[in-house]
Design goal:
Layout lengths: L6 E8 L6 H17 L4 E3 L10 H6 L7 H13 L2 E3 L3 E4 L5 E8 L5 E6 L5 E4 L3 E4 L12 E4 L2 E5 L8 H9 L4 E6 L3 H19 L2 E6 L1 E3 L5 E3 L3 E3 L5 E4 L5 E8 H10 L12
Parallel strand pairs: 1-2, 2-3, 10-11, 11-12
Antiparallel strand pairs: 1-17, 3-5, 4-5, 5-6, 7-8, 9-10, 12-15, 13-14, 15-16
Length: 274
């Protein structure tokens, strides 16, 4: 993207990952190249896209960053002239523990930023979902914004969606687009996914690119899908069908400027807590 442009075409890849890393990366490569053919500037992948299944398998497949998966995607980004939000991968931490990490790769193939998931998915929804991510994932402690193609963007992951203060901090730090790779479950997703995404977009007057897995992985947890790109007014610019597919939309910062001018919530006097 040329300096000074205010539009960005973004694609989101929704699919159901399994425990076979090589197969997942082969599939992802095909999806990304399809998106490149459509002229996108950025491709966003879902949470744990390179290996999703039983805990022991996922932890065993954890990597260093940079490492195998990020190098694989860096090469595609450089050759395709696009940026890639590498969903999340498990990053090696201390013994038998990992970070759940989102990585942003720039057009030149270099890593621009990485964000380690702060809010871990520890829930027990009677009869539907019982999961304790903190048993094997170490929580991150850094809020991340970065400049990508002259756009200020923020990184969050899945369960972070429920914590409005994180999104507010990202917006106050200048983020105009927030990327949300997820493996949001069916049990909660059918009631909470879209309302929360729209709320975070509206209250912070930002674009949100929410990319979810779809279907049942080898750990017998079913993800909701319904990946979507939402503008600062809460309008859904693109929404995925209920299968593996790619969606795309144009992000126009003029829309964000108009929304913030019409409802100037960021210009109101506030207690500066951050």
């Amino acid at each position: 993207m040329d300096k000074g442009k205010d539009k960005l075409k973004i694609a989101a890849v929704q699919f159901c990952a399994n425990e076979d890393k090589k197969e997942n990366l082969t599939r992802i490569s095909r999806y990304i190249h399809t998106a490149i053919e459509k002229g996108v500037d950025t491709v966003v992948l879902p949470e744990v896209f390179n290996c999703c299944g039983r805990t022991e398998v996922m932890v065993k497949n954890a990597e260093q960053i940079p490492g195998y998966t990020t190098s694989f995607l860096s090469d595609i980004a450089q050759r395709g002239g696009i940026s890639i939000v590498c969903g999340t991968i498990y990053e090696k931490a201390e013994k038998n523990k990992v970070f759940n990490t989102s990585v942003l790769v720039g057009r030149d193939g270099e890593i621009l930023a990485k964000y380690r998931k702060i809010h871990l998915f520890d829930v027990d929804i009677s009869g539907r979902v019982r999961y304790k991510e903190s048993d094997y994932v170490t929580a991150g402690n850094e809020i991340v914004t970065v400049s990508m193609d002259n756009f200020d963007v923020g990184l969050v992951i899945c369960y972070d969606l429920r914590f409005c203060e994180l999104f507010r901090i990202l917006a106050l730090r200048g983020a105009k687009i927030i990327f949300l790779p997820s493996a949001f479950t069916l049990a909660t997703g059918k009631y909470h996914w879209e309302p929360l995404i729209k709320a975070r977009a509206i209250e912070n007057q930002v674009f949100i690119v929410a990319v979810n897995q779809i279907g049942t992985s080898p750990n017998n947890i079913t993800c909701y899908g319904k990946s979507m790109i939402v503008d600062p007014w809460g309008r859904v610019l693109a929404e995925a069908e209920d299968d593996d597919n790619i969606i795309s939309a144009e992000i126009d910062l003029n829309v964000l400027d108009t929304v913030r001018a019409d409802i100037p919530s960021f210009s109101h006097r506030r207690i500066d807590l951050y």
